[in-house]
Amino acid sequence: MIKKIVLLQVLTFSFFITADEINAQKNNETLIFKYFGAAGWEISDSSITILIDPYLSRLKLGETSIKLNPNSAKPSTSSVDNRRSYKRTDLFESDTTVINKNINKADFILVHHSHFDHLSDIPYIAKMTGAKVIGTETTVSILKAYGIEDDNLYTVRGGEDYQFENFSLRVLPSIHSALGEKHYFNSEVYKEGDIQAPLMIKQFIEGTSLMYFIRFKSHKVLTMGSMNFVERELEGLKPDILLAGVNMSRFNMYKYDERLLKVTNFPKTIIPTHWDNFRVPYGFDQSIGIETKIKPFIEKVKEVSPKSRVIIPEHLKPFRVN
Ligand SMILES: [Zn+2]
Fold first, then answer.
1. Considering the entire predicted model, what is its pTM?
2. Cα(264) to centroid of ligand 1, in Å?
3. Which of 17, 79, 81, 149 has the fewest CB atoms within 10 Å, i.e. the most exposed one?
4. β-sheet with 220-223: strand ranges across
5. How far, in Å, is the centroid of ligand 1 from the Cα of 49?
6. Distance 112 CA to ligand 1 centre (A)
7. What digits encode the pLDDT tens for the residues 43-67?
């Protein structure tokens, strides 16, 4: 009888341990991704929510500061978009209705560079969520101008490898897309106090570019905010998930797709980013981007990295990566 009781206890005990382990494993193995358009993402696991370049306002802005490659999709606004039109000299305004509806939590926000399609909604989102923001000196100078507290800001230049409570983060020096048929170059940076809020759209300067290598509990994610990278900075990282920049400007680069897939060790999961037309609201047609950017990229992945799976993200529709 005593034996039986002991055995039962052991079985019960081990059952609970196993169930817990299974649950823990389930939670840890899954990352949930949500695409905001442009280079904007929400990535979360059971313990943390990280936003990347969240730009949700998608202003109707028909101008660009650089001469685009003739093969590029022109900055195209839509005639059936009845929102206000903006010029580059207008003050930036966040669409707070759209942001409130689609963002409810953020622990950290990572910023690749300071152009408006990456940074301009972050002052509002950082205040709303209390998230900590990581970015360049220019990014931080702009956020300080908007009144974000010093304690919530981390200034980085690339090369840092930080341990946080639920993830670690390697910051990678990077370079901006080769816009304007490779003539794009902007070395301007802001230091604290150089700029006053609110900024005009054109005052969101690049201010140097970064990439991020995020180590979650069970996944390593490499993020891109441009169609460019410093190859030697990616050597040996081996992400299992790659957010790959696949806008038209990548065709300016020497064997962009091949070099990117090879240096990242042919990631198991590849998710195209910065491929949509972010000058139209959510719900508008994005088939041109899928046809001209994503489909050719998928063909290349099949050829160069046949074991990789490419996920085509839809705006605001969360999906799991196990
Ligand atoms: Zn940019």
1. 0.90
2. 22
3. 79
4. 161-163, 168-174, 209-215, 220-223, 241-245, 269-273, 309-310
5. 24
6. 9
7. 999 999 999 999 999 999 987 766 5
